[in-house]
Specification:
The structure is a single chain. The chain is of the alpha/beta class. It folds into 2 domains: 25-132 and 253-442, Rossmann fold (3-Layer(aba) Sandwich); 139-244, no CATH class. Helices cover 42% and strands 13% of the residues. The protein is built from 18 helices and 9 strands. Strands 1, 2, 3, 4, 5, 6, 7, 8 and 9 form a 9-stranded mixed sheet that branches. Strand 2, helix 5 (102-109) and strand 3 form a beta-alpha-beta unit. Helix 6 crosses helix 9 (187-204). The longest helix has 24 residues, at 350-373. The radius of gyration is 22 Å and the shape is globular. The two termini are 42 Å apart. It binds S-adenosylmethionine (SAM). S-adenosylmethionine (SAM) binds next to helix 5 and strand 3.
């Protein structure tokens, strides 16, 4: 059964410098890493992480638990977290933008404790299950019992007005009963039952499966209750099979549902001196994280009024700006190069300028948190974007912010990873086809 996680700060032995579960670093990766550092002279070194690490099975461990958009290529954390120069003096891996938990799971597999923050409640749920450490022996029983109770239930609860457009009447009724069972389930089982609900609801919607955000399609238009029950059983079996592949004895990974701009979500100053921040942050116009999970959010009770715009307002990289965002001045960002770039975008397209100003202001806030708690090392995976007819050097601007806080860049590599085009509008925000992986050290520690 997937049980609720104990907060990392309360775990006995968490601060122990020599974690016995920790895997030995890879000598091969150590040589490759040292060679990259030698080659780096201020200009990004071209590299392919797929070649460096070699092929990895498509759906390894719980990595394929949920089709969350723009997942990080897991070869990157696999390489970095197996490399002594990156992790030898580290007790905690921290990801302030945890998404569906790639970094946290990779940290666990290397025997490293980790903490993550995620604002999208559906992604936070996926991550919690992905790295859960309880005994999974009873998971199948929990899911089968939830199904049996839902079938016996007569009353369908009130549902979010967002949903009726996307399901047949019978599917709505069956999913509604499953949602009520998920809500009533014991706290220690709730994540597991809610994840099965989210996956079943995703599969039973009348949406076009080729498009990550809900767009009307023709599948499931006549879905019956039996179809939903059958899908639940399939999703449940698949979740259980994936959880069973996780090795035992993995260290704790704590997922904090919240906002990375809030410093109370971060590791304490005591932990931060031995913390590696490893993350792939959102893009400036990545509005589709919230939209791509809006139906699941509604089933899980996060959209009671039928809208998910409140989730977007606390999300970095938003399309719908709040009145506060519109009050921001160029001086909210401290880098003069960045001010120039944003002014040039605003001249061509005022709304785009405001969107990217809000984005960099938020990212500056995030890295200020890293500095204020004293995070030792930062590994950042980011890309550039096509905006208003030009290329916005997002990676370089983020690096400038980090360096202005006293961190020193010790490595920059560039990988021609496929861009996250499905997540951003094609004309305004589409990523340039490469990602930068950069390492920064707190200079005065
Ligand atoms: C590029 S994705 C991370 C992908 C992740 N590495 C994975 O493999 O799934 C960026 C994530 O940042 C999250 N995010 C956006 N604004 C946030 C905020 N203010 N605080 C925490 N997370 C936020 C988004 O919901 C999204 O899941």
């Amino acid at each position: 059964m997937v049980s609720a996680l104990e907060p990392i700060s309360h775990m006995a032995g968490f601060d122990a410098p020599h974690n016995p579960m920790r895997r030995p670093p890879s000598a091969h990766y150590a040589r490759e890493y040292a060679a990259l550092v030698r080659r780096y002279e201020g200009v990004p070194v071209d590299i392919s992480f797929r070649q460096l690490v070699g092929p990895l099975p498509a759906s390894e461990y719980t990595h394929g638990l949920y089709p969350y958009p723009a997942r990080l290529l897991r070869h990157i954390p696999r390489f970095l977290l197996s490399t002594e120069a990156v992790t030898s003096d580290i007790d905690v891996v921290f990801d302030p933008f945890v998404g569906s938990g790639t970094v946290l799971l990779e940290a666990q597999l290397r025997g490293l404790a980790s903490i993550g923050v995620e604002q999208n409640p559906v992604a936070a749920l996926v991550s919690r299950v992905k790295v859960s450490r309880g005994s999974h022996a009873h998971s199948a029983t929990v899911l089968n019992e939830a199904l049996a109770v839902a079938k016996r239930r007569r009353r369908v609860p009130d549902l979010s007005p967002l949903l009726s457009r996307w399901y047949s009447n019978e599917a709505m009724s069956a999913l509604g009963r499953l949602a009520a069972v998920a809500e009533d389930s014991e706290e220690r089982d709730r994540d597991l039952v809610q994840l099965c609900l989210a996956l079943t609801a995703r599969r039973m919607a009348t949406t076009d499966p080729r498009i990550p955000v809900p767009v009307k399609g023709t599948r499931n238009e006549t879905a019956s209750c039996s179809d939903v029950w059958r899908q639940w059983a399939l999703e449940g079996a698949s979740i259980v099979a994936k959880l069973e592949t996780l090795p035992p004895g993995r260290p704790i990974a704590e997922v904090r549902a919240g906002d990375a701009r809030d410093v109370t979500m971060w590791p304490s100053s005591e932990q931060a001196v031995k913390t590696l921040l490893l993350t792939s942050p959102p893009y400036g116009a990545a509005q589709k994280y919230v939209r791509s999970t809006s139906l699941e959010a509604a089933w899980l009770g996060h959209a009671p009024t039928g809208k998910t715009v409140h989730l977007e307002h606390s999300s970095i990289g938003r399309e719908h700006l709040s009145p506060q965002d519109l009050m921001l001045k160029l001086s909210s960002v401290t880098s003069s190069q960045l001010q120039l770039a944003l002014a040039s975008i605003a001249k061509k397209d005022a709304r785009r300028g405001a969107i990217y100003l809000a984005y960099f202001t938020d990212m500056q806030r995030t890295f200020l948190n890293a500095h204020s708690v004293g995070v030792k090392r930062i590994a950042l995976v980011s890309g550039d974007n096509h905006v208003a007819g030009g290329v916005l050097r997002t990676s370089q601007h983020l690096a400038d912010i980090i360096q202005s806080l006293g961190y020193k860049r010790t490595l920059s590599v560039r990988d021609p990873i496929r861009g996250r085009t499905l997540l951003t509008s094609r004309k305004n925000g589409a990523p340039a086809p490469a990602e930068y992986i950069e390492i920064f050290e707190m200079a005065n520690l």
